[in-house]
Amino acid sequence: MVNIDCFACGKTVKIPKFIDTNNYDGQLVCQECNSLLHVKLAKGKVQKYKIVENKHGVKTWADVLEMAKEAEKRQEKEERPGGTSGG
Ligand SMILES: [Zn+2]
What we know:
Blueprint: E1 4-5, E2 12-13, E3 23-29, E4 36-42, E5 45-53, H1 61-77
Antiparallel strand pairs: 1-2, 3-4, 4-5
Bound molecules: zinc ion.
């Protein structure tokens, strides 16, 4: 029995019976968060593992970079505290 922890939600992914854990190279859907994973199994062990589509709300690297850019923009936009002009 092969157990795979979902990269997206961290829960254990149940491997359907039709998947031969001794020789499988294909996609797998996490029942917990519906993320689409690509796994390669051989002799009951995980050889490769990657997230194809993350539905858990965890960001992919592209999204992380995008968020970093957004954060920079916000900082630029931030107004400087202005003092009252004396008169
Ligand atoms: Zn998951």
